[in-house]
Design brief:
With about 230 residues, this protein is an alpha/beta fold. It has a single domain, classed as Alpha-Beta Complex (Spore Coat Polysaccharide Biosynthesis Protein SpsA, Chain A). The protein is about 30% helix and about 25% strand. The chain has seven helices and nine strands; from the N terminus they run βαβαβαββαβββααβα. The chain has helices spanning about 15-35, 50-60, 75-85, 100-115, 165-170, 185-195, 215-220, and strands spanning about 5-10, 40-45, 65-70, 90-95, 95-100, 115-130, 130-135, 160, 195-210. The strands form two sheets. A five-stranded mixed beta sheet has the order 3-2-1-4-8, sandwiched between helices. Keywords: Transferase. This is Glycosyl transferase family 2. GO terms for molecular function: transferase activity.
């Protein structure tokens, strides 16, 4: 039985993928040392030669590598979930970092809760072109405000949930030319409306790079909005 499919998506990160690959392997090793069977799954979506070389040289023989031609992080994640063999799936982008305990802590916390939820890190640290941090919200706390999702996103895309959750509610492709994007924001609204609580895992951190040319930067510069849902209507 494979407990977790750890999916890292690579595009054109080049040398920046090095620290992400190290973070990916450290979290997997930590989980395996504690008895979890983790499947490393690499999705290289329209990646350049340098990015492919980074993964080929250091990722390890225990990993599956899948190449795709979507040109979109949402569809790359969906494909990763479809190809995954684990009970749970979690994502890492090839310019971001997990805390070493992410896989272990998320699996244990989900087991403790004993019900269908979507998990996120407790803390997000942003570096690069921007520097900031924020605590991920718990949608079951009494001070949680669903209306905030009209103007902002509570959670990023590096979530942890049963594989079936991602298959039932896949990420939607970004359509920047049509004015729609922020696939993580949209997915969070969809799953929350479907009844999934979104909860932070105590003692975990995600470290995310802000850089020119990323999907997030492109969405922000294009001034797009998420697709309408029952929680967000523009």
């Amino acid at each position: 039985m494979i407990h977790i499919s750890a999916v890292i998506t690579g595009h054109r990160e080049g040398l920046l993928s090095g620290p992400s690959i190290t973070s990916f392997r450290e979290s997997i090793s930590h989980a395996r040392e504690r008895g979890l069977n983790v499947e490393p799954l690499i999705v290289l979506d329209r990646s350049d030669q340098l990015t492919r070389s980074m993964f080929e040289n250091v990722i390890g023989d225990d990993s599956r590598v899948i190449t795709t031609d979507f040109g979109d992080p949402a569809l790359a994640r969906n494909h990763g979930a479809e190809q995954a063999k684990g009970e749970f799936v979690t994502f890492l982008d090839a310019d971001d970092l997990w805390s070493f305990n992410w896989l272990t802590a998320a699996y244990e916390y989900y087991s403790l809760l004993g019900r269908d939820v979507v998990l996120h890190s407790e803390l997000n640290i942003i570096f690069g072109n921007e520097r900031l941090f924020w605590l991920h919200a718990d949608s079951e706390q009494k001070d949680f405000d669903r209306d905030y999702l009209q103007i902002g996103n509570y959670w990023d895309a590096l979530s942890f949930a049963p594989r079936q959750t991602y298959l039932k509610t896949p990420f939607r492709k970004n359509e920047l030319l049509l004015g729609y994007g922020h696939e993580d924001w949209h997915w969070n609204c969809m799953t929350l409306a479907e009844g999934y609580a979104h909860k932070p895992v105590p003692g975990t951190i995600h470290v995310k790079r802000r850089r020119h040319g990323s999907q997030s930067a492109r969405a922000n510069s294009s001034d797009v909005v998420p697709w309408p849902t029952e929680l967000v209507r523009f």
